[in-house]
Amino acid sequence: MFKILILAYLMGTNPVDTQQTFQMELTFNTMSECKANLLSRNDDKTYQVMREFVVDGQFKWDWLVAGCKNDKTGEEFTLEPFYPLGKPKELEGIEFDLKELEA
């Protein structure tokens, strides 16, 4: 079973102090199904899953890394945000990865 995990932080705060892992409700039988859902884009080219996450979180949370993960096999795929105007100040010099996602 593959699940989508999102590592996020409370916007306007220290991301290391407020980081939290969220698991999306849907699960998938294959990595390709999970990736297709994770990489699906809206008309404005934003990722549909991330947009839903940010909107459902009332714009309080921003994502740091997201991915598909299978706990039994260890198989994973990660996706990081792209910052066309540069990384927000609170994220400069900080790196996150899926291994930090524990659900």
Q: Termini, distance in Å?
A: 13 Å
Number of helices: 3
How many runs of DSSP E, i.e. beta strands? 4
Helical amount: 10-25%
The main β sheet shows up as: 4 strands, antiparallel
Low-confidence stretches: none
Radius of gyration: 13 Å
Number of domains: 1
Round the mean pLDDT to the nearest integer and report it: 89
Judged by helices, strands and strand pairing, the structural class is alpha+beta
Strand neighbour order, sheet with most strands = 2-1-3-4
Beta-strand residue percentage? 25-35%
Q: What string, H for helix and E for strand, traces the elements in order?
A: EHEHHEE
Approximate shape: globular
Question: Summed up, what is this model?
Answer:
The chain is an alpha+beta fold and 103 residues long.
Key phrases:
103 residues, alpha+beta, four-stranded antiparallel beta sheet, 3 helices
